[in-house]
Amino acid sequence: MGLLIVDKLDIIDCLEKNGHANMQIPDEKYVLPTHQSIQDFGARYGNFLFNSGLDKWLGDIWDCDDFSFTAKTLADIDNAIWKYKTGNKDSSLAFGMCFIQTKEGGHAISMAILQEEDGKLGVHYYEPQFQTTEEGINVCMLEKSRDSFLSPVFCYL
To answer: Is the terminal CB of the chain with fewer CB neighbours within 10 Å at N or C?
Structure first.
């Protein structure tokens, strides 16, 4: 799959089909990330958190919404650098944050709209805080199943 740019209405349609009723989608066109670009970003984002000393949850001082806002901001910076280098200045990145409801209460995570293998758009969710994989590796942007939370509350791209 090559670079895919979609309209705002395609993003809204995809989100609505996946149970998102409350959203802020401010731009008219979005470039879709790939699974690989999310993994690559997760490594850069994790290094940023570690090097800045913000790799751990610190209660209300540094918690889930701060991790999500920071991931969104750094992804937007990556996209702005890419746009500047390529001259593709008319699209934002289909990566943002999502406030969700879990059994434990509210939580903020990262989200992206990706093109699936069947060509359709799909919503993917990621934990922006460090998580330990089954192999014992600490990573950022570990994908979360939609079944891992009760409902999306609000999303922003």
So the answer is: N
